[in-house]
Input
Amino acid sequence: MTGKTQTSNVTNKNDPKSINSRVFIGNLNTAIVKKADIEAIFSKYGKIVGCSVHKGYAFVQYMSERHARAAVAGENARIIAGQPLGSTRKISQAE
Output
């Protein structure tokens, strides 16, 4: 194990403040891309408090909405493992 602190797998809290600081990452090749890869890519935008990876998509939970917005702006349509990320977006309370 590296000296890094592992983030939680929890990204589905119902707290309105945490919903605004969550990022959805779509079109993700999860056969190749793992949680550690997502954390490495998205950690440059701010402190990640949670990251969950599912078949074809992932969620990243940041400490603040500002960090989530920066991640969406910086990573939308980025190519990872030969696929462009789709629908990288901040989650809104209406979803």
Remarks:
- The chain has three helices and six strands.
- The longest strand covers residues 48-54.
- The two ends are 36 Å apart (CA to CA).
